[in-house]
Amino acid sequence: MTLFLISLIPYLIFTICKTKNSFHMLQQNFYNDDNRYLKWILANITKISFESDILFVTLVCTIFFKTTITLSLFIILYSIIFLIYRKKKVIAKKPLVITARIKRLSFTMFILYFIMIIPIIVNFDYDNLIYEYLVLGLATYLNVFVVMLANIINKPVEKCVYLYYKVKAIKKLKQMNIPVVGITGSYGKTSSKNIINDILNVKFNSFATPKSFNTPYGLMNSINNYLDKFNDIFIAEMGAFKIGEIKQNCKLVKPKYGIITNIGEAHLETFGSRDNIMKGKFELVESLPSDGLAILNGDDEYQLKYKIKNDCKVKWIAIDNHDVDLYATNIKLSNSGTSFECVFKGDNTKYEFHTKLLGKHNVYNILSGILLGHELGLSIDELKRGVNSVKTIEHRLELKKYGNINIIDDAYNSNPVGSKMAVEVLGLMNGTKIIVTPGMIELGAKQYELNKKFGEYISKSVDYVILIGKKQTKPIYDGLIENKFDDKKIFILNDVRDAFTLMKKLAKGDTYVLLENDLPDLFNE
User: Fold this and answer.
1) Beta strands, E only, 326-482
2) Which of 56, 229, 235, 361 has its C-alpha lying 20 to 30 A from 397's C-alpha?
3) CATH dotted code for 177-388
4) Domain spanning 398-523 has what CATH number?
């Protein structure tokens, strides 16, 4: 019995490590919302079970050995597989966050494994050792499914926790009675949120949801833990993967002001169609009160054609379309920032603005902030000061240094329009131009087509291309080759970290490297 208990030590250590990895993937797949975690398992079944396959097959073979050999082999096998597992472990791009929900899941997992292991220990019999080991091995082999079972078991508890924090957040907002600005769109939500927050803070003490807290859980967390009594405006970013989710967010925070950045093709796979994306995003506008204000993009054909089912006030911003409430003209882009002039409807004066931000698409976000600020009583001078003070946004066309290389970090961008604009920014730079990208995901049936077009566009603007992941970047590669891009200047890697070594070798004189999109760990090849 003593040797048997000792043999469980490496087994349990490996099982804990594997559970942690399964938790990580469950969290990145939104706790299996819309069966995302299950779909990930089925799509990666070979990758996630490789070590366990070897171990399990070897374990079955021990049935032919004596008891002492079986015990020893069990210890050796799990020790080896644990060491292999740890050696292959890489630094996560978005690590597991140990939330209260993960802690509750951990407790449920402990109970499940306890229920399995304790009867084996209590009724331990050396004659049945191989069968007892097979049960243990099977439990670890199917760990990803055990985690899914724990998640299902915890659903009633999570629903109660959700309702508790929802009621708490609604009560707090009602007591504070401050205006709420809702921001949504296929891309540019986080940038727009931060830009507007910086502009409004010239006059107000506004608060914006931190990072990418744009789900109901994220909004509740922001309200309950970060919003305080000194804030007089709340800016809420709202994300969605399907119709109804923006409406759910609006029921929670009740926005008076709503901004839609753009109707693009991000999350096309989960929405099903671009028309569904349009309907989903306009849930924000249609949730506004009659005295509310919607700020929309007059250069977006999908926003222009949508028939709004609400009597709230609607104002438009644009760059190309001048029949709007506020448009930008004379835009000048450089590697140090952007300058442009603004014209308000009914006022022929051209007001000049300057920002440290890069890219034409950020002008749209700034225009929304200017129009909202103007509506809330900011003077032109205050608006200019606010735009000039807008801080660069982490991982969104953020210019930074890597030795003597200039990095344009656009790692959080993953949509066709934003990616194209990022390449435009790279094209403005003087010197050697390199792009590092794994391509775009969640574009449904259009994924190949849109990534191929991206490759065609890249071919006109860069000197070297570093693709991350051979399989998922095949469309980009095809687009590059069809556009006669030199295949000797295309490099395919499996790990984005290897790209930093390669870009040093490719750097010549002034070098600019665009890091375009950085897929979550669940998309690693």
Assistant:
1) 326-334, 337-344, 351-355, 398-402, 405-410, 432-437, 464-468
2) 235
3) 3.40.1190.10
4) 3.90.190.20
